[in-house]
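thread from #wetlab-drylab

HS: before we spend reagent money on co-crystallization trials with arginine, can we at least see a predicted complex? here's what I'd submit
DV: go for it
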Amino acid sequence: LKIPLPFIGAHPINKTNLSCPVSCVKSSLSRDTDKLVTKFTPAQTRSPPYLQKFRGKTIVVKYGGAAMKSQSLQALEINDLALPSCVGIRPVFVHGGGLEINQWLDRIGLKPNFLNGLRVTDASTMEIVPMVLVGKVARMDSTILRSLVANNHIPIIALVAADEKGQSYNINAYMVAGEPAAALGAKKLISLTHVAGILENEDDPGSLVKEIDIAGVKKMVGEGNIAEGMIHKVNCCIRSLAHGVRTTSIIDGRVQHSPLLEILIDEGVGTMITG
Ligand code: ARG
């Protein structure tokens, strides 16, 4: 991985400059994020010391979908997510594969089959993907994960699991992401999606809900204001929060550097759900 070291080199990590991450990020990223960065006023980007807050803590990132579409964006996101590990934050990736499965199904003329927004992996699909049903997580053994994280590796979790008989299952990314987050006592769970976040009005991208708590989300679901595809995403957040994850964010994986901005600045870039 190519990590933008000038960023680190220009700002040696010590207690003093850990409290001013935003100016560092702005200067190193401004070349290709001018449009995005100038959206923030200086007051919005004056952030508490988030690097300090997250130092030594795990952040689980559900990655895939729209963020995987373009290879350049994919590389950017990976670099962005590797960067916090250089300053002691511990990222763990949960890698969705939906888009790739669909591409392979398309090649042999099979239609992807979904029920309530979840993939149904039938027997013919099984010939393409070595997975059979859409499984649910019963238990997660986090022993290996813990030692990887403790040794500063960045684990990437693939969404294939097995039952006691060795049968393999394809599991929806949103059903998995909360598990390592809970098992590792993560501070934050970030879902990279192909939408800006939770919108007050589905047709108005400007109606982004910046921050909301579980009660607020449940109210929106109850009133039918959170659409089908978003329900799995928010349920995943709610489950993680119930298991002790402090905050969860649904952000736009199509926006360059969105994970870094969400982590480092006060304003964030998507919807942050709190307990
Ligand atoms: N950077 C802070 C954090 O990760 C705040 C993020 C706020 N995000 C939002 N969408 N309101 O905890």
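DV: The two ends are 35 Å apart (CA to CA).
HS: ok that's useful, forwarding to the group
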